[in-house]
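Standup notes
- HV: blocked on the assembly model, inputs below
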Amino acid sequence: MLTTKQKVWWALGTVAVLVYALFPVAAIFATSFKPSSELTSGTFLPSSPTLSNYESILAGDAQELFLSSLRNSIGISVISTVLASILATLAAYAIARLDFPGKKLVLMTSLAVSIFPVISIVTPLFNLWRTIGLYDTWPGLIIPYMSLTLPISIWTLTAFFRQIPWELEQAAQVDGATTYQAFRRAIVPLAAPGVFTTALIAFFIAWNDFVYGISLTSTSAARPVPAALAFFTGSSQFEEPTGAISAAAVVVTIPVVVLVLLFQRQIVSGLTQGAVKG
Amino acid sequence: MSATTGPGATSSPTAAPSSSSARNANATSSRKPRRSARRRAEARLGWILAGPAFVVMLAVTLYPILQAVWESLFNYQLTAPDDRTFVGLNNYLVILTDSIFWRAMGVTTLIMVITVAVELVIGFGLAMVMHRALRRLRGLLRTAILVPYGIITVVSAFAWFYAFDTTSGFVNSWFDWVPGISSDLNWFAETPTALIVIMASEIWKTTPFISLLLLAGLAQVPGDLEEAAKVDGATPWQVFKRVIVPNMKAAIMVAVLFRALDAFRIFDNVFIMTQGSAGTEVLALLAYRTSIGQLQIGMGSAISVLLFLCVIVICFIAIKVFKVDLAPAQGGK
Amino acid sequence: MSAITLKNIVKEYGDGYAAVNDVSLDIADGEFVILVGPSGCGKSTLLRMIVGLEDITSGELRIDDDLVNDKAPRDRDLAMVFQNYALYPHLTVFENIAFPLRLTKGALSDDEIDARVRRASTLLELDEHLDRKPANLSGGQRQRVAMGRAIVREARAFLFDEPLSNLDAKLRGQMRTEIARMQRTLGTTTVYVTHDQTEALTLGDRVAVLRRGVLQQVASPRSLYEQPVNLFVAGFIGSPPMNFLPGTVGESSISTPFGDLPLTDRLRSAVDGREIVIVGIRPDAFHDVDESDVPDEAVRFEAEIDVTEWLGSELYAYVPFTSHDDVAAKLEELDRDLDGEGMRTQLVVSLDAMSTLTDGDDATLWFDPASAHVFDPETGDNLTRDAERASKLDEHGAKARKRAIERAREKAERGEASVAVPSAG
């Protein structure tokens, strides 16, 4: 039973955490509803909220820039997430399940790659991509995104797979299942949540990329949202694109918030899985 | 991005080893050391499955970094590709004697040290709140915490930038009673104030990750240790300092190492907020501007290689000096 | 050294479930009290309330004369040994034992701490392990480190929470004696929680039996065994457990599936008009007519032995029987309370190990009707309990105890304390 004092402390603590986590989001959310006349008012909330910023990015001047970048971001992130998940699932299965020389090397490599400074890779890629024609294309981003999504996927999935009671597969075979049935009915249901969670985390990382995005693209052919935001301009040279950027920021943040709300438990377990279970 | 990694080294003496690792150990040790046909087949299958991922990882990192090392030895500008000449280590010499580089290095290091320190404190606070939270609150708190984690760094940068911006921001008008803050304070004109906002955005966005790692570490400290310490006469602070922290030291160190490496690569926030003006240039931005901005591939490659070496040095220091144990991170092998 | 007084202690959880209900218990200075009962009876909760790790919903908890209900654990000055020992994995054995002393921040000099730790480690034979980490110790050594941490405090009382449950059977026996010896040497008030009745009977000056949060009986081990107050205590204390037989009261006897008990004055007054009773007879009260002299008053009966178990020192024989419908429900409920599985009803007989009975044999057995208890089938009360005899047994226990403590203290004064604690595992 909580005493009143404890209840007050919990209420305060919870409010503090909520303010911490949500206030900057609320700020940009509020800004996105400000008409251009209010952008310099210095107030938090818009006094006459408007949807004009959303109109401009979804239907107006900035539509071309924003919608194409949104398409690029979704396409490139999803494809690189799927590729990374497939490769990582195979690798993690091998690491968790099989004993082969060099599995330590694979794990250490994924650890090393994950701490690799992206900027160090970007210069040579920039040069190479221009030579072989991958500059400013989807594959030109999907390939380097592997350096972001693959290591963490291998790492997290290995931790997940180590927890799977693989004897179940044998038990199912003893119970009369074929090899395929044993895998399909005993292992896949246990492994699927881990793969899904890993894919979710990999997607967040790909979605977040900025360095590759601005370095390896030049037009709306492949430029993803974060890079596009940085190159937004106002409708005239003298007008700051604050409203449009805020609206675009809100639009790309919504899917993240929805995913977090839906899969909060899985994401936390995925993020901490490798960290503590080893 | 930080990989989720870390030790399982904080196991209590009485806790049984995790069933999975015990199983692995048994499976391994019960096999004969001689390489039987079965073992060879297993090794082959292992590489067939793990090989593609391994090759892709090498292809997207090892190859480019070797390329960068090679190109850093040339005077090579994309504006004049035919004038490519071998200059040996001259590019490095130029960079290492240039105050711009050292300034960027200083700023980067400063950002790394301060953000990691602040994140550790806030992260611990958040982790403690979540750890002790009632079941009903825990889901809500975790969801809230994950929002900054999931938000695009560039969006976070814009949110903080607009909040502090002289024309569009509300911070100046809200906090004008604080000494030093007035309605016309331009945060992004001076190095210290600009760095404060940059670091605030960085801290806000990445603390959730550190706090989740710490939360996982906290969960590993057996509850009866805390109880025993309470009975032994420890104050709450003594319980924290003498029992909780030492028993999750490994988790703390790994979290700090990965966040430090991450912070050392800071780019997005600086790019969005100041583009490196007002003395906020960091190493990654310097490398970007040199190679992508000015198309000086040779010089940019050299900076990239130096940045890479810095990361290796940080890792080395962490592992040798602070004894961060990455071995358990390989899955207890 | 302190007395601990529990007065109407209640622990109620948020959902209204009372884990501990109205428990009152006086624990005298230097006394060794056992809290015992099946799992979920509230014994650990009660202990954790004493030490301060659980809030007390209502009632009064006093240590000596201080009301400590709302005091933090660190202000109660009690030492506790946890079930999993709760050793600090990052500290050496020395630092584990020194831990409570280090917390006092400067109140004790390093030399004083060192001296105290070494005194405890010598007492517990841990001298050669002082520099090791808990992870490298055996179960028994960890157990002793946990005890070392408790005694070094010179706290007002020791609390043990099932300290031996993680040890194997042999070590458990050794550590049991060890704890008894240590407590006698130090004379510190001790509260000890266990579900193991051997520990309860051997260690305690007094044993408090709990059932579903309610205190059933507090008495010396002998009195508990011989004069249980009800079915629950009778069924819980003793191994193999007491046999409960349906008894139908007739004109001159109580008839059971295994012979008729003549209605002596003792039984007649106990039965007091009831038609159905539960007759309780301990397994060791039965004998084989072929292997012993049969007294005149003995009740004889024929039995077909179903299964036998030879244990070296004795032989258990099992004889199935059909329980009477009127008492079956009560006995099933009792079985559930005792963590039983509700298996078939059978009589357990403990015979001499030399007996040659085997499975399927027909045997003639006898028992002395004076050893039988009679219980009310509704309330479970023991109708044949001899309160006078019980208090005599309690007094006897208290006296024996007092002598033991005096002997230990004399020995300690002569400086033989460490000799009194020989090596354990």
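- HV (later): unblocked. The interface with chain C takes residues 1 of chain A (CB under 8 Å). The radius of gyration of chain A is 23 Å.
- Next: hand off to the docking folks.
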